[in-house]
Design brief:
Blueprint: E1 3-8, H1 21-28, E2 32-37, H2 54-68, E3 74-79, H3 81-93, E4 97-103, H4 113-116, H5 122-130, H6 135-146, H7 153-166, H8 171-183, E5 195-200, H9 209-218, E6 222-225, H10 232-248
Parallel strand pairs: 1-2, 1-3, 3-4, 4-5, 5-6
Length: about 250
């Protein structure tokens, strides 16, 4: 498998939060070029205002690639809010994209608000976004919600706190990203043929039924991890790679 793979992260996450997954991916697919990007308001773009639309985030990602001299055809691998950006990309500029892998995402018209963001986590999420807790405490809270299998959460929370200090996402931008995600609706027609959906059966942030409905709506293949949490690349990156390899071999169909 050759070509460029663009990696897109989710709400208030930056490209560093992929941790070792890009390296694992590159080792599994040595002929590929991996391009992790930050959405406006996060990571290297933390000084920018987050767009209030998923379309605005998508156009920012396209502009970043143009500045880097990266041209189509592209492949997209995206999680959560990044998955919405990927779907909008497929919808608006599908000819630029060869294939896409969308992980634990949701859209307004395929999931109700209680499914798109599970209500038991509302207090913890609000606390993480707007309180004066230390960065390490906030990152520990996020990890506790998003990861089921990662064995060293305390050490990782300390590491992620350094990311937050170096490239902080403001509360204002976090809210703007949540608004954009809440507003985003699925296109009326299937935006692309070559898409693989991955979900986590024990996702405590987004109900996996959202991925199931996307699969049913557009006839895309869906594979569900039996134990992982929302941050599937962190919990079991090798499993993601295995599913992509199966998909490339034609073993996964809708």
């Amino acid at each position: 498998m050759a070509g460029t793979w663009v990696f897109l992260r989710g709400l208030v996450r930056q490209q560093k939060h992929w941790e070792r997954f890009p390296q694992l991916f590159q080792e599994a697919f040595p002929r590929t070029r991996v391009e992790p990007l930050d959405l406006p308001g996060n990571g290297t773009l933390c000084d920018r205002s987050s767009p209030l639309s998923v379309g605005g985030m998508m156009e920012s990602a396209r502009s970043q690639l143009q500045r880097k001299g990266v041209s189509a055809p592209l492949n997209l691998l995206a999680i959560s809010l990044g998955g919405m950006v990927a779907i909008e990309w497929l919808h608006r500029h599908g000819r630029e994209v060869r294939s896409a892998v969308i992980i634990n995402s949701s859209l307004r018209n395929v999931g109700n608000p209680l499914e798109r963001l599970r209500p038991q986590n509302y207090p913890a999420i609000l606390k993480a976004l707007v309180t004066n807790n230390s960065a390490e405490e906030r990152e520990q809270l996020i990890l506790d919600i998003s990861s089921n299998l990662y064995p060293h959460k305390r050490e990782l929370a300390a590491k992620w706190a350094t990311y937050a200090h170096t490239h902080p996402t403001s509360s204002r931008n976090a809210i703007r990203q949540m608004v954009a995600a809440a507003r985003y609706r699925a296109p009326q027609h299937r935006p692309h043929d070559r898409v693989l959906l991955l979900s986590s059966a024990h996702d405590r942030l987004v109900n996996p039924v959202c991925s199931q409905r996307l699969a049913e709506k557009w006839g895309w293949p869906l594979v569900t991890h039996p134990r992982a949490g929302h941050d599937l690349p962190l919990d079991d990156g090798p499993w993601i790679i295995q599913q992509i390899q199966r998909w490339q071999r034609g073993e996964l169909t809708s």
